[in-house]
Amino acid sequence: MAAAVLFGTVALSPFAAGADPTPFRSVQTTAEEPVDLELVIAVDVSLSMDVDEQALQREGYVKAFLDPMVVNAIEQGIHGKIAVAYVEWAGSISQYVVIDWVAVDGKDSAAELSALLAEAPISRLRRTSISGALTYSGQLFDDNGYRGMRRVIDVSGDGPNNQGGRVDTARDAIIAGGVTINGLPFVPDPTKPLSLFDLPDLDIYYEDCVIGGAGSFSLPVYSAREFAEAIRNKLVLEIAGTNAPEETGPEETGPKPVPASAAATRIPCDVGERQWQMFMDGDTP
């Protein structure tokens, strides 16, 4: 299959030195291009993730689009093509497009996307607003020049929502529009001291409060060394539209995806806001 013509541009963070804060959108034709999947990758760049973790996270996406498993999943689709946008986010007003919508239909165009990601800077911003990231990402599907058989937001993060609107309210609004939300939560290492803003049950929080929609799943990551494998596996599942098998726990080798919980929430969806209020009140451990 011939490679798609890839005119995606990198919109640098307004927080990077010398960067233009206005993202440049690729020129699209008036007709919508059919694709198997419209995918927004929404990546947490809040200060709770250290520089090394952020670098490993970005490297995971750079490597994933070079992986034969990902490329094969793309080529096996009905159209053999997906559209991807890559967003970084933190607080309620801190979201921006790193790579605007680009079409990927095989090895060459996937490699171009990987190269764009490798060249783009990574910002470090304050607070955590998953609700803001979901709302912002959901708007990116409007008039993006593509018509996907499925629309998915893939949101990653290492903590609960603590700024902006309620995350479950934002989730419900997004999935009501036919968009699926999948999660990649970075669960805190239980062997290390936890801060006030850490949530040991972040995997459960993502299942109950963040993900939703047809075929949604969460793929917990329990250590930084799992980033690359988890990101690759997640992309393969999303591109192929495969239902995720049940997870058996972090004691198993490698990360395992888990399905969205159909039961009542097991953890308050405003737990992050409560943590922040404790901090503001000076009630810290």
Distance between the termini: 58 Å
Question: Which CATH architecture is right?
Answer: 3-Layer(aba) Sandwich
Average of per-residue pLDDT values:
81
Give the % helix: 25-40%
Tell me the domain tally.
1
**What's the CATH H-level superfamily name?**
von Willebrand factor, type A domain
Q: For the largest sheet, list the strands in their spatial order.
A: 3-2-1-4-5
Protein name: DUF1194 domain-containing protein
InterPro entries: DUF1194, vWFA_dom_sf
Signal peptide: 1-19
Organism: Microbaculum marinum
Summarize the structure.
The protein is of the alpha/beta class. The protein is built from 8 helices and 7 strands; from the N terminus they run βααββααβαβαβαβα.
Can you describe this structure?
It is built from 8 helices and 7 strands, in the order βααββααβαβαβαβα. Helix 1 packs antiparallel against helix 3 (107-119), helix 1 packs across helix 7 (227-240) and helix 4 (130-139) packs parallel to helix 5 (167-176). The protein has a single domain (33-280), classed as Rossmann fold (3-Layer(aba) Sandwich), CATH 3.40.50. It is globular, with a radius of gyration of 18 Å. It is α/β, with parallel strands linked by helices and 285 residues long. Residues 1-29 and 245-256 have low confidence and may be disordered. The strands form 2 sheets. Strands 3-2-1-4-5 form a 5-stranded mixed beta sheet, sandwiched between helices.
